[in-house]
Write a structure and sequence with these properties.
The chain is mostly helical. The chain has one domain (3-307). 59% of the residues lie in helices and 0% in strands. α2 runs antiparallel to α3 (53-77), α3 runs antiparallel to α4 and α7 (149-164) packs antiparallel against α8. The longest helix has 25 residues, at 53-77. The protein is globular and about 65 Å long.
Length: 351
């Protein structure tokens, strides 16, 4: 069997075993989102008002994990057709995207490029860099810079977006370089001609929301403790997501085009028995390799699909080589490989 035949075989096998799981369940999406948002805001309110440290920390943890889960639905939005979950995109933006100043425009039209076979892992991929070639210190910087994400979205929404409507060159820069959740800093959006009216509405809504929060804080209507608590919860959620991002792939490719086998094996599943991954890789993100194999599979069916594939595919199948045991183990492995490559590079003789 040729390599190409093997690639097609794995995809065909996976699709054949999961074809009945491809339809999204709108009720599941809406219920999950509403519960997550309720826990996010409820936990935040308790954390920002209680006088008991232990209760505040517990409520803050609940709020942070719920915020992270609710925000993670932005990934699902890029793979859903509007008719599959009517109103869900608008509802998500109203409940999550605008309040967190991270509207769906930041991922729509961007994440899908990551799934294009000839772009994955190359310089044209917005969500890939050869992170395993970073030094351990640079990897740590990549991880901890995520703590500043809330300040970044405030700067974008409260200052840069309104200014961009009166400074055309800035508007172009905001659209091309500051309107995408990316890893690759060299990526620039090129879909300006297809910029949607709803995306402009999202931008304006984030702008007005940010000004309303700032005005309420300056006027004293919104206590500083509320603002500080919200920023801390949001910051920790983005930090957790950055840690999850570091273990979503092996990050070994250095810009070359990859075969489907290589793309799949560069991606990572953290399936059961690891139950903690349900929290740190929510909304199906713990099955990232499976998602790359079957991007249209809705998140709520990924666990069932994985169980079928794990049972049906032989022990020699590529599918079984894409799993890691957990977050700490996978992070440790990435930092270990980065350290080894750094030492190997330092030992190369000078020419």
């Amino acid at each position: 069997m040729t390599k190409a035949t093997g690639e097609i075989s794995l995809t065909k096998q996976a699709y054949g075993l999961t074809e009945d799981l491809m339809t999204p369940n709108a009720a599941v999406y809406w219920t999950d989102l509403v519960v997550s948002v309720a826990l996010m805001w409820g936990g935040f309110f308790v954390a920002a008002t209680t006088i008991h440290l232990s209760i505040g920390l517990g409520a803050g943890l609940v709020s942070m994990l719920a915020l992270y889960r609710a925000l993670s639905f932005i990934h699902e939005l890029t793979h859903l057709r509007a008719d599959e979950t009517p109103g869900f995109r608008t509802g998500w933006n109203v409940l999550v995207g605008v309040p967190l100043m991270t509207p769906s425009l930041m991922y729509e039209g961007v994440h899908n490029i990551h799934h294009i076979k000839d772009r994955f892992g190359t310089a044209l991929d917005p969500e890939y860099m050869p992170l395993s070639r970073f030094t351990p210190l640079k990897l740590a910087g990549f991880l901890f810079v995520a703590l500043l994400a809330p300040l970044g979205v405030i700067l974008r929404s409260a200052i840069l977006v309104p200014l961009s409507f009166v400074i055309p060159p800035l508007r172009r820069y905001v659209k091309t370089k500051l309107s995408a959740l990316i890893i690759n800093p060299d990526f620039a959006r090129d879909d300006l001609a297809r910029w949607r009216t709803e995306w402009v509405i999202q931008d304006v809504a984030c702008w007005l929301w940010s000004w309303a929060v700032i005005a309420a804080t300056v006027a004293g209507w919104l206590p500083i403790r509320f603002v500080a608590t919200g920023l801390a919860i949001f910051s920790l959620a983005t930090f957790l997501n950055q840690a999850r991002t570091l273990v979503a792939h092996h990050w070994d490719n250095d810009g070359d085009k990859m075969t489907l086998d290589e793309q799949f094996l560069d991606s990572v599943n953290v399936p059961p028995p690891n139950l903690a991954s349900y929290l740190w890789a929510p909304v199906g993100l713990r099955y990232h390799a499976l998602h790359h194999l079957l991007p249209r599979l809705p998140y709520h069916n990924l666990g069932k699909a994985h169980a079928r594939l794990a049972q049906a595919l032989g022990s020699d199948s590529l599918y079984h080589r894409a799993s890691e045991k957990g977050l700490i183990q996978a992070l440790g492995e990435l930092f270990r490989r980065a350290g080894e490559k750094r030492r190997a590079g330092a030992e190369q003789p000078a020419h």
